[in-house]
Design a protein that fits this description.
The complex is a heterodimer of chains A (114) and B (116). Chain A has 114 residues and is mostly beta strands. Helices cover 0% and strands 53% of the residues of chain A. Chain B has 116 residues and is mostly beta strands. Classes of the chains: A mainly beta (114), B mainly beta (116).
């Protein structure tokens, strides 16, 4: 089975721009979660989607949003980028057979805001 | 809110030695899950082992085992016969399922180096 894939892997944007990141979960997984990883704040939960509905949300400003499609693929969008948004954005999927709460991560998208 | 604390920012051991990474957490919940994830230099986060809080038996996965002390809210990871490929950041994580919704709360991580 293919793992979680994320595109693009690297991205450089300018302050004020917006960006869209994509995540394709493991086949059969219906839950997709997003995390932000920075040296200062560590790993922080952004949001989780299940069956096209946001099921859980972290403490991030409204500039961070996401959505999930009927095939479980998910996108997250960051509008009006700030320098502090530079981070590794990790996507994880879960919901397979057995331990449906085990989250499996993609390789991440490295976003640099200049 | 739940918090996870890893008190060892860095550790270093020789190949083939045994090493134990510490993790404590704070929660008022009774049912939850605990995980250890490994993040090597490639940055790919890899699930190492999981523990369900309702299970008294400690989880094991080959060379990896945990010591789960529910009353003490402690969840340490033991790596036996350490290998060079074990060099990575290790994150302890907590999850409480709320109406099915999932959210991992991570510790700050322990950087583990295995020396030849």
């Amino acid at each position: 089975k293919a793992g979680v894939t994320q595109t693009p892997r690297y991205l450089i944007k300018t302050r004020g721009q917006q960006v869209t990141l994509s995540c394709s979960p493991i086949s059969g997984h219906r839950s997709v979660s997003w995390y932000q990883q920075t040296p200062g704040q560590g790993l922080q939960f952004l949001f989780e989607y299940f069956s096209e509905t946001q099921r859980n949300k972290g403490n991030f400003p409204g500039r961070f949003s996401g959505r999930q499609f009927s095939n479980s693929r998910s996108e997250m969008n960051v509008s009006t980028l700030e320098l502090g948004d530079s981070a590794l954005y990790l996507c994880a999927s879960s919901g397979g057979q057995g331990a449906s709460y085990e989250q499996y991560f993609g390789p991440g998208t490295r976003l640099t805001v200049t | 809110a739940q918090t996870v604390t890893q008190s060892q920012p860095e550790m270093s051991v020789q190949e083939a030695e045994t090493v134990t990474l510490s993790c404590t957490y704070d929660t008022s919940e009774n049912n939850y899950y605990l995980f250890w994830y490994k993040q090597p230099p490639s940055r790919q986060m890899i699930l190492v082992i999981r523990q369900e809080a309702y299970k008294q038996q400690n989880a094991t996965e080959n060379r990896f085992s945990v010591n789960f002390q529910k009353a003490a809210k402690s969840f340490s990871l033991k790596i036996s016969d350490s290998q060079l490929g074990d060099t990575a950041m290790y994150f302890c994580a907590f999850m409480k399922l709320h109406q099915g919704a999932q959210k991992l709360v991570f510790g700050q991580g322990t950087r583990l180096t295995i020396n030849p």
